[in-house]
Design a protein that fits this description.
Layout lengths: L9 E2 L2 E4 L4 E6 L2 E2 L2 E2 L5 E7 L6 E6 L4 E4 L2 E6 L9 E10 L5 E12 L4
């Protein structure tokens, strides 16, 4: 029996603190051996569970910026105003031809703020 896996997504666990800005850069990002460029777009959605209503949604060119070989996230603390807890997320890339592919997925943990 043969198996083929078309799922190219990587699992990445992200932990942030409520009340802090969320800034992250993924560097050396390539699709099929070629650097990603600004002709791609991206969206990241955080949900309480699979199929649940989106709690947080970030997209290019607002909170997500794509430059040659880099995907950067810059989210103000005020844009992450949800209850601390463990959530699920995925990051989808849209190719210049409109095709979509999930690139990252995993848990998105928001630790409580104490001040």
């Amino acid at each position: 029996m043969a198996y083929i896996n078309f799922d190219k997504a990587a699992e990445l666990f992200i932990t942030v603190r409520k009340g802090d800005d969320f800034q992250m850069s993924l560097t050396n990002v390539q699709i099929d051996g070629v650097d990603i460029t600004s002709s791609y777009t991206a969206s990241m959605i955080v949900r309480a569970s699979e199929g649940a209503t989106a709690l947080l949604t970030w997209e290019t060119p607002n909170e997500i910026v794509i430059t040659t070989g880099t995907i950067s996230f810059d989210v103000a603390a005020s844009a992450m105003d949800v209850t601390s807890g463990v959530y699920l997320y995925d990051l989808k890339i849209t190719f210049p031809d409109g095709a979509k592919q999930t690139w990252l997925y995993g848990t998105f943990t928001i630790n409580p703020e104490f001040s």
